[in-house]
């Protein structure tokens, strides 16, 4: 079992729709969770962090965390073509000895006009 | 401060050659990480420094890879005797000790081994 799992996509949504991206993780002790956006050929850019169960909203983005289910999600409202990118879920984990971010493989999002 | 800087942005090398990449972290960050990312995959952890001490090295890192962070400032990642399988984006990130707000990544170095 991978430590952080995401559907690779592509997830295709029409402009203006809600995009829902999902992530599960294996380490029950994880406390910090992040979503990064990565445009093709660029490095990852942090867009959201969440530490407590429930929802956290920032503009058009909402992160949701359910530690009991080991599940994190990212909702993007009013999706725009500029949101087309790969979204990486990352979990602050202790695998291997020291805390570090462990990434999923990413979900590719395509927003079409 | 302009963030995490990586140099070069792109490197094309012939198989068997040695390459070295440099990372300059955000000045007040004492933690520095190297990751590798191949097409369609998320970043994979390679190694981690706290100040000048290399505290962890991934099993992914063969003996051909070495990293240093002299004086706890910039870091270098060297790959000896490059192989085609080393072709990837090499990402550097930094964070403050105790900072749980995620990393700041540099722009990455794209390595192509021909």
Distinctive features:
heterodimer; A: 113 residues; mainly beta; 6-stranded mixed beta sheet; 11 strands; B: 114 residues; 7-stranded mixed beta sheet; 4-stranded antiparallel beta sheet
Structure characterization notes:
Chain A is mainly beta. In chain A, 0% of the residues lie in helices and 54% in strands. Chain A contains no helices and eleven strands. Chain A has strands at 4-5, 11-14, 19-25, 33-38, 45-50, 54-58, 61-66, 71-76, 85-93, 100-103, 107-112. In chain A, strands 2, 4, 5, 9, 10 and 11 form a six-stranded mixed beta sheet that branches. Chain A has a five-stranded antiparallel beta sheet with strand order 1-3-8-7-6, with no helix packed on it. Chain A is globular and about 45 Å long. Chain A starts with a strand and ends with a strand. With 114 residues, chain B is mainly beta. In chain B, 0% of the residues lie in helices and 49% in strands. Chain B has strands at 5-7, 10-13, 19-24, 31-37, 44-50, 53-57, 65-68, 75-79, 88-95, 104-105, 109-113. In chain B, the strands form two sheets. In chain B, strands 2, 4, 5, 6, 9, 10 and 11 form a seven-stranded mixed beta sheet that branches. A four-stranded antiparallel beta sheet of chain B has the order 1-3-8-7, with no helix packed on it. The model of chain B has no long low-confidence stretch (mean pLDDT 92). The chains are: A mainly beta (113), B mainly beta (114). Chains A and B meet through strand 5, strand 9 and strand 10 of A and strand 5, strand 9 and strand 10 of B.
């Amino acid at each position: 079992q991978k430590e952080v799992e995401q559907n690779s996509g592509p997830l295709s949504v029409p402009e203006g729709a809600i995009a829902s991206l999902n992530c599960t993780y294996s380490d029950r002790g994880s406390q910090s969770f992040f979503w990064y956006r990565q445009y093709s050929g660029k490095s990852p850019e942090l867009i959201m962090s969440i530490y407590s169960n429930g929802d956290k909203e920032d503009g058009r983005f909402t992160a949701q965390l359910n530690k009991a289910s080991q599940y994190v999600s990212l909702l993007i409202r009013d999706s725009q073509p500029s949101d087309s990118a790969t979204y990486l879920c990352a979990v602050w984990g202790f695998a291997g000895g020291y805390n570090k971010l462990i990434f999923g493989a990413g979900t590719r999002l395509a927003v079409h006009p | 401060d302009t963030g995490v800087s990586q140099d070069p942005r792109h490197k094309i090398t012939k198989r068997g050659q040695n390459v070295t990449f440099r990372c300059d972290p955000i000045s007040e960050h004492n933690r520095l990480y190297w990751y590798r990312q191949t097409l369609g995959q998320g970043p994979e952890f390679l190694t981690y420094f706290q100040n000048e001490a290399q505290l962890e090295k991934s099993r992914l890192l063969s003996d051909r890879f070495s990293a240093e962070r002299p004086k706890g400032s910039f870091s270098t990642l060297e790959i000896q005797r490059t192989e085609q399988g080393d072709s990837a984006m090499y990402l550097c990130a930094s964070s403050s000790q105790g900072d749980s707000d995620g990393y700041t990544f540099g722009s990455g170095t794209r390595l192509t081994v021909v």
